Amino acid sequence: MKYIQLSVLLFAVIMASCTEKQSQEIVIASPDNSIEIKFNLSEKGEPIYLVNYKNKEVIKSSTLGFNLKELPSLKEDFKIINSATSSFNETWQMPWGEQLDVVNNYNELKIELQETSELKRKLNIIFRVFNDGIGFRYEFPEQENLKEVFITDENTQFNLTGDHQVWWTPGDWDIYEHLFNTTKFSKIDALSKANHPNLGQTYIPLNAVNTPVTMKTASGLHVSFHEAALVDYADMTLKVDTTNFTMTSGLVGSANNDYKVVRTVPFETPWRTIQIAEKAGDLIESKLIVNLNEPNKLGDVSSWVKPTKYTGIWWEMHLGKSSWDMASGKHGATTKNAKAFIDFSAKNNIGAVLVEGWNTGWEHWIGFEDREGVFDFVTPYTDYDLKEVVRYGKEKGVEIIMHHETSAATQTYEKQQDTAYALMQSLGIHAVKTGYVGKILPKGEYHHGQYMVNQYNNAVIKAAKYKVAINAHEPIKDTGLRRTYPNTISREGLRGQEFNAWATDGGNPAEHLPIVAFTRMLAGPIDYTPGIFDIKFDKWKAENQVNTTIAQQLALYVVIYSPIQMAADLIEKYEGNPAFEFIKDVGVDWQQTKVLNGEVGDFVTIARKERTSENWFVGGITDENAREMELNFNFLSPNTIYQAFIYEDGKDADWDKNPTAINIREIEISNQSIIKMQLAPGGGFAISLKPKK
Ligand code: NOJ
Ligand code: CA
To answer: Residues 380-423: pLDDT tens digits?
Structure first.
């Protein structure tokens, strides 16, 4: 009894202080004090926050809250019932990744809010402030008056300080495979990107952007917005108000529901993240997104999740040389062809082969409405002996990467996952590339809604039981879940190399990847499928080409991170080409990563040290502009002479006029060396550095 009285009294005291003074600002700063979040309640009792970097506003006062179905919105009349701060500092190790050790150091502020109005509902907000950015999430705690929540809108605001330069893609609910646009914030016009001719599915309902979206302020600060730990929730696009320079979360919905997210209390939302950096390259080095995810739940996966290079029966379909289906008479996935890829890979230090079009059903995918029950993921075409191919591969030390094109028929895939993954396990296949081309079945769902978020996440969790890793195409965006489920090896989620083979809009322009490195790549690994040597492939598609030089194709193995990297071209295109030495040599799993230079949309150079050796690899790429850059090798180990093999754009190289001109030379390099590199328009360079014995 006494206890209750005391708490009632305390409650009264807090209430009194709330009404007396309006401002109860709570401040939390990053461990190095450079970033600061100020939290407060507005006069209406709305939660508001702002973000400072070195005492200057980066995010102006912005509101937080929710609209709920059939209930009053949860966004005002709040009082603070508790707040607590804490600090955290750990170093954890990535089982595979861009680096081995990751420092996870932040200060946390947890605010507990309660409505003063009748329902007295509670909402908590948790802020984490790192030296390289912030994350915050909402927590719906257990409570009397809120049991099941139907979120119709999340109203997380990001109130910008000006008309920043923005690298953006439209907030498509169904695909991320758009080119990036470079405009002022006030000129963002996502709706003008609707009805893209090359997309099997696309839906852009509003003027919104997808994340990661990266910006540069007038004072030169880089800011990138994304989310972390997207679990059982809808993808967050960012609606743009081009007049007031404000973005507000716009959750992806479904045509089947009048809400965006349904959850049972208690639960927490994904983290809303803002990475902040003076140098563009620091965005790439930031590990904020993975840090905001929960630690590994799978334990030691090293015996089955293996970073590797791979070749595949793949590009030939995109060129039209062969096809996925058998009825066409030019089936690509034959036992004979697969064995040729295995032989080539075994000879060239490439650990795996992807085989697409191996299973029945490809006569009935793109363009068909009734796609459920078509693919079955266990029945090979008659000219493909799955068991024999796997056996042959094992004999040669080459793994087969399985392929599951679901054609977005989600119920068929869900039903068959156990059988399909069990088959893989019985054959000793440990990785699958999944695909979700087309409109989602059941109709009305979108690739990025809560329904599909759960599909993608459940596939990863289920696959782990069978020791299977997933490389998803047409995926949900990466939000760092690879930390929790390290069998999430890679994904697409951008305009990949394939667009160069068939897009009717000229393919991926030279500026594409110098933007991607500072946007999409901040989310996580990318299965871009580099390494096209036959840049023009006139024999197959006279109208199309890759819009880079061959040297840039090599650079991509270092610049664009993925633990699985494809040598994507037809294998005969590699035979006898000295540039292929770099693909043979280059690592796929890294001890350390350093971004040596870069400007969003212009150029970037990255150095990575291999985990299993003392070798370093450096890759640099430029947009459509030629440039000269100075490389300082002061990151190398002291007192060591490295033998460096340099693959650079040849004289007069040009992505269009002369893409295959390449110069290969060998020099000695130490940590005192500074060299000049010349990059051609759409060009680049790749360097392998090995300590001299
Ligand atoms: C689209 C994927 O991005 C591509 O890599 C794949 O070959 C096709 N779907 C077929 O699954
Ligand atoms: Ca795709």
So the answer is: 999 999 999 999 999 999 999 999 999 999 999 999 999 999 99
478 φ, ψ to 5°?
A: -75, 130
pLDDT score at 317: 98
In ligand 1, the atom with minimum distance to the C-alpha of 529 is: 5
CATH architecture of residue range(s) 510-521+545-693:
Alpha-Beta Barrel (3.20)
In ligand 1, which atom is closest to the CA atom of 318? Answer: 7
Ligand 1, residues 405, 434, 566: which to mutate, most atoms within 8 A of Cβ? Answer: 405
- Give the residue from 496, 464, 152 showing the smallest Cα distance to 303: 464
Q: Which CATH class is domain 300-493?
A: alpha beta
Q: What is the pLDDT of residues 100-154, one digit of tens each?
A: 999 999 999 999 999 999 999 999 999 999 999 999 999 999 999 999 999 999 9
> Residue 237's Cα: distance from chain center in Å?
14
Nearest ligand 1 atom, CA 314: 7
CA pair distance 206, 445, nearest whole angstrom: 17
Report the candidate in 408, 314, 334 with the shortest Cα–Cα distance to residue 366.
408
Cβ neighbours of 302 (radius 10 Å): 10
Which letter, b or e, does each residue of 166-190 get, where b requires 16 or more Cβ atoms within 10 Å of its Cβ?
bbbbbbbbbbbbbbbbeeebbebeb
- The pLDDT assigned to 693 comes to 85
Q: Which two tokens stand for residue 213?
A: 């979206």
Q: Which residues of 129-142 are buried (b: 16+ CB within 10 A; e: fewer)?
A: bbbbbbbbbbbbbe
Distance from the CA of 312 to the center of ligand 1, in angstroms?
12
Mutate to test the pocket of ligand 1, among 474, 498, 528 (most ligand atoms within 8 A of CB): 498
Q: How far is the CA of 279 from the centre of ligand 2 (A)?
A: 31
| Res 332 pLDDT > 60 | yes
The span from the CA of 629 to the CA of 662, in Å, is 17
Give, using CA atoms, the residue closest to atom 3 of ligand 1: 473
Give the start-to-end residue ranges of the domains of the chain. 3-163+221-291, 300-493, 510-521+545-693
The CA 209 to ligand 2 mean position distance, Å, reads: 19
Q: Which ligand number lies closest to the CA of residue 404?
A: 1
Q: What lines the ligand 1 site, CB under 6 Å?
A: 314, 356, 405, 435, 437, 473, 492, 496, 498
Nearest atom of ligand 1 to the alpha carbon of 324: 10
CA–CA distance, 158 with 161 (Å, rounded to integer): 10
The residue to which tokens 């078509």 are assigned: 374
Q: What is the per-residue pLDDT across 522-537, written as a single tens digit (0 to 9) for each? A: 999 999 999 999 999 9
Question: Which of 273, 192, 183, 260 has its CA nearest to residue 228?
Answer: 273
Active-site residue (options: 115, 445, 498, 648): 498
pLDDT value of position 139: 98
Helix (H, G, I), strand (E, B) or coil at 71: coil
Residue 649: alpha-carbon gap to chain centroid:
29
Do 3-163+221-291 and 300-493 agree at the fold level? no
Tell me what pLDDT residue 410 has: 98
Structure tokens, 345 = 């890979």
Going by pLDDT thresholds of 50, 70 and 90, the confidence category of residue 22 is low
Check if 498 is active-site. Answer: yes
CA 431 – ligand 2 centroid, Å: 18
What's the mean pLDDT in 255-264?
Answer: 98
- CATH code for residues 3-163+221-291: 2.70.98.10
Ion ligand 2: protein residues whose beta carbon lies under 5 Å = 473
176 alpha carbon, closest ligand: 2
Model confidence at 20, pLDDT cuts 50, 70, 90, reads very low
* Residues ≥6 apart with Cβ < 8 Å to 484: 229, 293, 294, 295, 296, 297
Per-residue model confidence (pLDDT) at position 43: 96
